[in-house]
Design brief:
With 271 residues, the chain is α/β, with parallel strands linked by helices. It has 6 helices and 12 strands.
Length: 271
């Protein structure tokens, strides 16, 4: 991945909307555990519009496809263009970066998203052949290089995988295996305000050492919280919002597409 920078059209108090784990299939009628991922993502976008955030940036933090297929990214590319959204994205373990770059052509990959006086730095924690997270030497170098140029503004870090346990042992096995290497970089920068991740298909707020950490429900299916084995909950599709203040503080919360009427198959043994 090369070093790219995106300047979004915000001046003050930008709104960041975190959406993750879309799991688009090969076609518009693909279904995952009883849920159509395209329908659930549209329901999340509708809920965002109805909540009246105004102008916002959508941060899509991986597993945009559930099958790493070009059709997933082509559908998403057209949908987001028609919705006239500002978008930043990064890959997850179910994605293939080369296909994302090719077919999300309306939304080129960017390392840094400039949101007024804020910045979001995106890192790739995915690796081929495993659902677990890892940060390559290149990703750690990106963190070093970009953070050295972002000392004058508050920064959020975005990745797909979580760096700490969240209390579900089967998911905790997927946490970033060399997270300490990144933490030792981040902790040297007092302007890091928080870390945002996906992958776990549930809301979690905690501390990674001294850094606030936030995960976000999937825009498709949710996993049971506190479960030692795979399980799907009945919660609807969701997202997380961030209200970023010019003084470097922020507020955040999770919301759901409560009107979405498709029910997940909570008896599914896999996804």
């Amino acid at each position: 991945m090369d070093f790219q920078w995106l300047k979004a059209s915000f001046m003050v108090n930008p709104k960041l909307i975190h959406i993750t784990d879309l799991h688009f299939g090969v076609s518009a009628d693909s279904v995952l555990a009883g849920i159509n991922p395209l329908d659930s993502f549209n329901a999340v976008l509708d809920a965002i519009d109805e909540n009246g955030f105004g102008e916002e940036l959508l941060l899509l933090s991986g597993d945009l496809s559930g099958v790493a297929h070009r059709n997933s990214y082509k559908m998403l590319n057209g949908l987001l263009k028609n919705r006239n959204k500002q978008v930043a994205w990064l890959p997850g373990n179910h994605d293939r970066f080369s296909l994302m770059e090719k077919y999300l052509d309306n939304f080129p990959f960017q390392r840094v998203t400039d949101l007024g006086n804020w910045a979001v730095l995106s890192l790739d924690s995915s690796q081929l052949g495993t659902p677990a997270g890892h940060l390559s030497g290149e990703e750690l170098l990106c963190a070093e290089r970009f953070l050295s140029n972002l000392r004058d503004r508050p920064v959020l870090i975005s990745m797909h995988h979580c760096p700490i346990p969240i209390g579900s042992s089967w998911l905790d096995e997927h946490k970033i295996d060399n997270a300490e290497d990144l933490y030792n970089i981040l902790i040297r920068h007092e302007n890091i305000k928080g870390v945002i991740t996906g992958h776990v298909h549930q809301n979690f707020e905690g501390l990674w050492g001294k850094l606030p950490l936030y995960t976000t429900p999937s825009s498709c299916i949710q996993f049971k919280q506190g479960s030692d084995i795979f399980g799907i909950s009945s919660e609807p599709p969701g997202y997380r919002w961030f209200d970023l203040n010019v003084n470097g503080n922020f507020t955040t919360g999770v919301a759901f597409a409560s009107g979405f009427n498709q029910l997940p198959n909570v008896n599914s043994s896999s996804y």
